[in-house]
Amino acid sequence: MNSLEQLSQTARGLYETVATEFASLDLGFLNFKPAPESWSILECLEHLNRYSRYYNPAIAKAIAKNSDGKFVQSISHSWLGKKSLDMVRPDNLKKNKTVKHMNPNNSQLGRATVEEFLKHQQELLNLLQSAKGADLNKKAVPVEFFKLLKLRIGETLEFVVVHETRHVQQALRVKQQLEKRAAA
Question: Coiled-coil ranges per the record (predicted)?
């Protein structure tokens, strides 16, 4: 189980990693794909941007509606929340098929993708701060691909951070492969 403080630390770390590891890379490196069906660094970040475009406003709305003095700071998980988290954990090596509109494979991407990711990270850090005044166990965030299902505020924040960790690690592996090629 993660606390809001742990999630904030992880989100800050992801911001720093992307800013230091990717922001200064040549556009050719950012678009390098180890294999045709795998994602480039920019595609990993664009995938996360697509999720952030939906989840950041949805979480903000849920926090605003559930910050009425009934603060519940510990994150507990529903069955759906546990399942969602297990799917995106970085140590889950099973490849998951992403829904079509969230799959950035073969997109034309540029530096703006990195800048957008960093902007979304700032928003997420602000949301994690705002969540300190909310009931984290309120089911209030509609699931992106099936809006009739709702996740709890806390588990949604955890899902977003864990999902980002998975794909930033994926982008770092792409960078490692690139460095190996350059050294060879």
Answer: none
